[in-house]
Amino acid sequence: MLKVQNVEVKFIPQIWLIVAPFIAGGLKYTDDYTLDQIKVYLSSGAWTLLVAVDDLQQIHGVCTIAFENGANDRTAIITTLGGKFVVLQEIFDQVCTIVRRLGATRVQAYTRDTAIRLYEKVGLKKKATLMEIRL
Question: Per the confidence metrics, is the pTM higher than 0.85?
Answer without folding.
Answer: yes
